[in-house]
């Protein structure tokens, strides 16, 4: 193992240089490139360069919200674990995941729906929960769409990156049909680590 | 959104059916297939069918350790968050990640090495930490290799799936050269979510 490998900062710099090199002719506006490269850094999967779609002003909208102390809601503990909470905290925000809450489990059971859906209902009760990261449950994204359409939520960014074979792609199409700032990974790919990487890329741009 | 989508159990069954179908001629022994399909379920990336390598008796070795109450050590909070801790707890084990420990940060700084390396040294101090999941840091895997070679660790399973462009592939090759039960994803791909999926597949087989 080379000595340089013991310095995480250098490993990351070298990784991003390799990613940029291998992307070759595929270039992006600076901010968009930072997000896409961080997702590739997290997955080693260059397909994300083609499937990651960022709506106009999504990054700006998210950064303004974070500057204002907005909280971030995730649909998994993994996405919450992956987001740089120390960086977010500097602006006053925190990361919240309601999936393991007792009242969420109870309501989901009573109503025969997913905890992910109930967790979105709970999330929109606090209007300072302004950024949503859905890395797992298409039902969370469909539910958030409903809440947005009913005027119960007006997010500053929805990171819609559920991974999977049943409903994931469709839930992202549904998100893209809405008039909200969004970032999606079209098709089946995505996941909690991808969602966290997108948020971290946005946070690191704010330094 | 179809009503079936509100039942997570049915979504998962349908997802695995799609994965099996799309794998086509690629079939695996039952236990190995369960691990590979769960990784694909987590990533929507069929390349894992080709790069996931499971050493002989690795699954059996891990299950015996878990039955005996072994703990699982991860190199990220994300992998820890992703592992089904309730299932593991039934056997008496818990998931441990030392990356955020104050003493680990302190020692890493003093010695100019990564926290991931120090966290492995700390992990092997308790001989009941018998399963290791490395989803992020090649340095953790290289360090674990050293500890194994020096006789300071004798794991019942090492899940070596660091993702990345600098050292990740090499660290997995190093793991494969050892005489320990291992599961790796050859090359650059992997990650905390992949590591957690592998452990969960092993846990779900034990039901």
Automatic annotation (TrEMBL), chains A, B:
Q: Can the keyword Protein transport be found in this entry's annotation?
A: no
Superkingdom in the source lineage = Bacteria
Indicate the segments forming the Cobalamin biosynthesis precorrin-8X methylmutase CobH/CbiC domain, all copies. Answer: 10-205
Please give the coiled-coil regions recorded for this protein. Answer: none
EC number(s) per entry: 5.4.99.60
Question: Gene3D superfamilies from the xrefs?
Answer: Cobalamin biosynthesis CobH/CbiC, precorrin-8X methylmutase
Q: Which UniProt keywords apply?
A: Cobalamin biosynthesis, Isomerase
Q: Which biological pathway?
A: Cofactor biosynthesis; adenosylcobalamin biosynthesis
Q: Which SUPFAM superfamilies match?
A: Precorrin-8X methylmutase CbiC/CobH
Q: Which InterPro entries match?
A: Cbl_synth_CobH/CbiC (IPR003722), CobH/CbiC_sf (IPR036588)
Asked whether the keyword Isomerase is assigned, the reply is: yes
Biological process GO annotation list?
A: cobalamin biosynthetic process
Which Gene Ontology MF annotations are present? cobalt-precorrin-8 methylmutase activity; precorrin-8X methylmutase activity
- What family is this protein classified in? Belongs to the CobH/CbiC family.
Q: Write down what this protein is called.
A: Cobalt-precorrin-8 methylmutase
Organism (species): Thermotalea metallivorans
């Amino acid at each position: 193992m080379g000595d340089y490998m013991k310095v995480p900062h250098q490993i990351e710099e070298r990784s991003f240089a390799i990613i940029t090199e291998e992307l070759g002719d595929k270039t992006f506006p600076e901010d968009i490139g930072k997000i896409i490269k961080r997702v590739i850094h997290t997955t080693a999967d260059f397909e994300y360069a083609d499937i990651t779609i960022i709506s106009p002003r999504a990054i700006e909208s998210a950064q303004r919200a974070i500057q204002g102390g907005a909280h971030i809601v995730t649909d998994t503990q993994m996405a919450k674990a992956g987001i740089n909470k120390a960086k977010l905290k500097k602006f006053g925000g925190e990361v919240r995941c309601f999936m393991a809450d007792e009242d969420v489990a109870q309501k989901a059971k009573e109503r025969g729906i997913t905890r992910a859906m109930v967790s979105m209902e709970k999330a929109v009760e606090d209007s300072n929960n302004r950024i949503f990261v859905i890395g797992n449950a298409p039902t969370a994204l469909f539910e958030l769409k409903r809440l947005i359409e009913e005027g119960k939520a007006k997010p500053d960014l929805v990171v819609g990156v559920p991974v999977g074979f049943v409903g994931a792609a469709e839930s992202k199409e549904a998100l893209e049909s809405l008039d909200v700032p969004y970032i999606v990974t079209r098709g089946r790919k995505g996941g909690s680590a991808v969602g966290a990487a997108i948020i971290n890329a946005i946070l690191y741009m704010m330094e």
